[in-house]
Amino acid sequence: MIRGKVRTEKGKREDGGSPAGKAKDLALLCVNAALERKAKDVVLLKVRELSSFADYFIICSGTSDRQVRSIADHIEERLKKEGVLPLGIEGRQGGHWILMDYGEVIFHVFYEATREFYDIERLWAEAPSLSVEPSVQKIDALGEELA
Fold first, then answer.
1. How far is it, in rounded angstroms, from Cα 96 to Cα 147?
2. In what helix (H) or strand (E) does residue 31 lie, and over which residues does it extend?
3. Which residues are bridge partners to 60 per DSSP?
4. For position 21, what pLDDT does the model report?
5. DSSP bridge pairs for 50
């Protein structure tokens, strides 16, 4: 079972795989799990070149605190089935901003008004991004600029 980052020296993974490839697969899994719970305004940001602590940020919204918690619970459940456990989860009790830290992938689940207030997409505006259209139910692959 993988627990968060499995990087050893100089970014090499213990299993010999590419850390960037693992992060991309994890990000794709997270996005699809959020879409399964009808998350709104899903945005994936590639922050690898801008950040020393993560490769991807994923941001999405729920229309109620109940939906926000449901999205976060579903992401955690889906990743756990894949053997991936979070390094930490913050904000679950309030249900307005839940931050899920999976090492290379940081997932933010917001209540809509809270997301508008903090506007963290603006803080990472230089990052390549993918905004998922509302009609999309599943993403099969990330574009080359996000890989």
1. 30
2. helix 19-36
3. 109
4. 63
5. none
Tens of pLDDT, residues 16-47: 343 446 888 999 999 999 999 999 999 999 99
Cβ proximity of 140 and 29 under 8 Å = no
Rounded CA gap, 35 and 143, in Å? 18
Q: Which residues contact 102 (CB under 8 A, 6 or more apart)?
A: 4, 26, 30, 79, 84, 86, 87
Q: CA-to-CA distance for 41 and 114, rounded, in angstroms?
A: 13
What residue type is 67 in one-letter code?
A: Q
> Hey, what amino acid is at 35?
L
Q: Give the helix/strand (H/E) hosting 107.
A: strand 105-111
Q: Which domains does the chain have, with CATH numbers?
A: 39-125 (3.30.460.10)
Residues 137, 142: Cα–Cα separation, whole Å? 14
